[in-house]
Write a structure and sequence with these properties.
Elements: H1 10-34, H2 39-54, E1 58-61, E2 64-66, H3 71-78, H4 80-98, H5 106-113, H6 117-131, H7 136-165, H8 172-204, H9 213-218, H10 224-227
Antiparallel strand pairs: 1-2
Helix pairs in contact: 1-4, 1-5, 2-3, 2-4, 3-4, 3-6, 3-7, 3-8, 4-5, 6-7, 7-8
Amino acid sequence: MHVPDGFLDAPVSLAAGAVAVAGVAVALRGARRELDDRTAPLAGLTAAFVFAAQMLNFPVAAGTSGHLLGGALAAILVGPYAGVLCVSVVLLLQALLFADGGVSALGVNITLMALVTVPVGYVLFRALLRVLPKTRPAASGAAFLAAAVSVPASALAFTLLYAAGGTTDVPIGTVAAAMLGVHVLIGVGEGLITALAVSSVLAVRPDLVYGARGLAAKAPLRTKEAAV
């Protein structure tokens, strides 16, 4: 998903950069309400996990590989604003230390992998929790679906940016089919990883899962064992 330097023209890259700066600025203000003495360490651990996970690729099809984007996971664990900051910091370090995605394309990558995946994943997770049973397996299933949808949503956003300012001769239809087809499969892998991580934290410290806090206040999450 990392967009390299020069893949999109200057106007589109600059516009995406402006969106990224504005989004991160809003996230900095909003994160003050989400982070406290308990959740700040979890935000650091989440960023470290996303950084490590993005360095590991897994095969998809026809020689294609993908990696965890982490937006939905970060949003569910530490909140949407803090989640944007976690993913943005990861992308910044990757661009500066490993030239992964390129510095001039940093705004594009933050827009795609932080400002798209985080709100899509968080909103869908919260919406599912409103209608699903108040149990840990149900919350894990909601996390799976939220993460699985957030990845192709990011791929769709890239396709729109490419249509506006792509610098290659590849037809937009070909790009759309390739991006969406591959990232649907990647989304399944991301969903599984996200569900496992969220379920693990819910099992030991459900109070630390930001996305489930409001729900837990009304009707505490139950495991299957507790419900029996």
